[in-house]
Design a protein that fits this description.
With about 270 residues, this protein is of the alpha/beta class. Helices cover about 45% and strands about 10% of the residues. The protein is built from twelve helices and seven strands. The chain has helices at about 10-20, 25-40, 70-75, 85-100, 115-120, 140-145, 150-165, 185-210, 215-220, 220-225, 230, 240-260; strands at about 55, 65-70, 100-105, 130-135, 170, 210-215, 270. A seven-stranded mixed sheet has the order 1-3-2-4-5-6-7, sandwiched between helices. β5, α8 and β6 (about 210-215) form a beta-alpha-beta unit. α1 (about 10-20) packs antiparallel against α2.
């Protein structure tokens, strides 16, 4: 079974553990049935993310290096064209505002959990250093019931490693799985609570390191809730081209601030104290 399905059995087990001992056997059976229904409603991810790595706006010169790290959302799964991926959208936005060329490198891997981020950095060319790195991770940690403290520990290690190399870091926190309408209640509410718990822990940890954080469910989550047909791709889990455009636009202010190009960041963006 694909790691990208949001309602693998791990979601049920993880959610039940959070409810403590008050859930009776019948409740557990209900959630298991709901998980089976949701698995049939949410399609398998299709193909691979489009390859978007290149230099954007070469004519500007003075290249900036943008690194994208994380899971399938960071990789751009669901986008039909390379230009629609999160990395490409961000690269074009940075180039437009900075008037500098932007070289995009995508290390993100479909299905990645936080424990796999270090391996993504290991796969980069020797001596490579990005000016700014954007990390989006957490959904697979929730669906595979990775303990919050373990997921955050692995994220923190990678943020530190990037910072030690001289890279500014921006973390988009775990998206709210409650936006996935095909998942029935109460399973969707449990997934939402788990993802928000992880997002809050991620934000706190990376801010303490001096990195920037963006609470994705605050800055872009409402678009996915109010307009799911347009914002989600055909698999009903990953963003569509429009979904990535909205997400990149929402993330961009913190990336520009991390690069020293902008000072103001809107609601949902968090700078270190």
């Amino acid at each position: 079974m694909s790691k990208q399905r949001v309602v693998v059995g791990g979601v049920v087990v993880g959610a039940l553990s959070g409810l403590g001992g008050g859930l009776v056997y019948g409740g557990k059976r209900l959630l298991e049935r709901q998980a089976a229904v949701a698995r049939n409603l949410i399609g398998q991810p299709f193909g691979e993310p489009p390859k978007a790595d290149k230099v954007y706006k070469k004519r500007y010169g003075q290249k900036l290096d943008l690194l994208i790290v994380g899971d399938s959302i960071a990789a751009g799964l669901g986008a039909e064209l390379p230009s629609d991926t999160l990395g490409a959208r961000l690269a074009k936005g940075i180039a437009k505002r900075s008037r500098r060329a932007v070289r995009l490198r995508t290390a993100a891997v479909v299905g990645a959990e936080s424990s796999m981020l270090a391996g993504q950095l290991d796969g980069l060319p020797k001596n490579y250093r990005a000016d700014v790195a954007v990390i989006i991770v957490g959904g697979n940690d929730v669906t595979h019931r990775v303990p919050v403290d373990e997921a955050v520990r692995d994220l923190v290690a990678v943020v530190r490693r990037l910072q030690d190399a001289g890279t500014a870091v921006v973390v988009g926190t775990c998206p709210d799985l409650g936006a996935l309408k095909p998942v029935p209640q109460p399973l969707r509410t449990l997934g939402s609570a788990a993802s928000r718990q992880l997002a809050a822990a991620q934000k706190k940890a990376v801010l303490e390191l001096g990195a920037r954080a963006i609470t994705l469910h605050d800055v872009v989550g409402h678009f996915f809730i109010t307009d799911p047909e347009e914002m989600f791709s055909l698999d009903r889990f990953h963003p569509s081209g429009l979904g990535y455009r909205r997400t990149a636009k929402a993330i961009l202010p913190s990336v520009l601030a991390a690069l020293g190009i902008a000072d103001h960041v809107p609601f949902g963006h968090h700078a270190p104290a």
